[in-house]
Amino acid sequence: MYSLTVPFRKARNWWFHLCTGRSVYERADEENYRQRILVMTSCFWLLTVILFAVVIPLFMDITPQGKIAANVLFVASILGVLISMLLLRLRGDRIAALNIMLLIYTGAFTTACFVFGGTGSPTYPLLVLAPAMAAIAGSVTLCASWGLLVIAIWICVLQAERQGFQFTQIILPENHSMAMMMAYTAMAISVVSVIIIYAEMNKALRTSLQASNSELEHLSSHDQLTRLPNRRFYDERIALALQRASEQDGLTGLLFMDLNEFKSINDTYGHGAGDKLLIAVAQRVQNCLRETDLVARLGGDEFVAVLEDVKSADEITRLAHKLSQAIEQPLYVRQQILKFSCSIGVAIFPIDGRQLHELEEKADKAMYLAKKRGIPVALASLESTNTPMPARAPTNRI
Question: What pLDDT digit, counting tens, does each position of 314-359 carry?
């Protein structure tokens, strides 16, 4: 199977590049796939005409007039494909290229009906491929237009036959059944080919749409600067975290973090330096916490961390001090050392409350308490005692 599919794909890609000047995989959009369908149907048309005009006379006796008609059909088909593919490559106008190809296609096959025996001509049923190609490579309106034209041609040929018009019959009677069998086989192959190509196009477009939706979902739930989850993602995750903690009788730490004097840093060093600072802080917080912990940017210089499945309140306190020390490491921006600090407020579920709004309010108050006292970390549970927290944890120094 591999030995057969690889040459076929290479030939397909070469033909597409020849007709359009572009790669098959250049753009995964609807226009690209419809152009691919147009190119592949033009290839199928050429192969069909070659079969009828070149191969069949080698195995089937036809009259001299039949040979002339076959050669004319062959030349007309090559001319139609050449003009339409040149138009597609040079102007990129798929609709115009499709209409020109279908015009020559229907004209050649309608003419062939008059020299191959009217409704008994092998090309008579093949006219149905015109609206089929218009539907797949064009549009519904185009399909309807070409469908009406083909129906009109069928009716005209049928009426002419009923009125006694003498069609030229250049296929010998003993070969007529074989010719019709080849025509219906070609039509069946073309229909199946169009269905396969259309299914491939739909699959690729669905994959592209899913990727676009995933990207949009990520953009809507993550901060573009720091690549951290944003407030929307945090709101969804924190509710689940508290629910799990309640069901498992566990502890969950909620850490509100705010950079001190961030506005003055922006004013002094510029917003570019402020952005680099926010990115560095986001990376430092992520590096300090576990993969299962949530770190989000709420906006501006405000960050939040949700610590799930912790064993004790002391562990949350140690992690808060570890975060503070990691965040406050100096940052080199534009060959200058940028020094800054961070205030962290800690609230613990269920020690400081069981409702989300209660925990957020206490964590926020603790953060402003730390900022007011000039200390890195403040616990919501100790706010009422007015007991100052140590500026640094006694252990786990960085």
Answer: 999 999 999 999 999 988 877 778 888 899 999 999 999 999 999 9
Q: What is the pTM of this model?
A: 0.55
50 and 98 assigned to the same domain: yes
- Considering the domain architecture, whether residues 124 and 236 belong to the same structural domain is answered as no
Does residue 283 form part of some domain?
yes
Same domain, 162 and 284: no
By the 10 Å C-beta count (0-12 exposed, 13-18 middle, 19+ buried), 385 is classed as: exposed
Helix (H, G, I), strand (E, B) or coil at 21: coil
Q: What are phi and psi of 164, to 5 degrees?
A: 95, 10
Backbone CA torsion sign across 117, 57, 130, 84: negative
Tokens of 147: 């469908």
How many CA atoms lie within 13 Å of 327's alpha carbon, on the beta-carbon side? Answer: 27
Q: What is the CATH number of the domain that holds 372?
A: 3.30.70.270
As to burial, measured by CB atoms within 10 angstroms (0-12 exposed, 13-18 middle, 19+ buried), residue 324 is buried
Instruction: Annotate 23-84 with DSSP letters as a single string.
Output: -TTS--SHHHHHHHHHHHHHHHHHHHHHIIIIIHHHHS-B-HHHHHHHHHHHHHHHHHHHHH
User: Which residues are CB-neighbours of 257 under 8 A, at least 6 positions away?
Assistant: 285, 302, 303, 304, 305, 323, 327, 342, 343, 344, 367
Q: What is the pLDDT of residues 216-250, one digit of tens each?
A: 887 888 998 999 999 999 998 999 999 999 999 89
Residues 93 and 20: their CA atoms lie apart, in Å, by 10
> Domain check: are 279 and 364 in the same one?
yes
Residue ranges making up the domain that contains 181: 2-218
Closest by alpha carbon to 74, among 98, 48, 97, 100? 48
List pLDDT tens digits, range 193-225. 667 766 766 777 777 778 778 888 878 889 989
Which pLDDT does position 178 carry in this prediction? 67
Q: Is residue 185 part of a domain?
A: yes
What is the number of structural domains in the chain?
Answer: 2
The reply to whether 41 falls in a domain is: yes
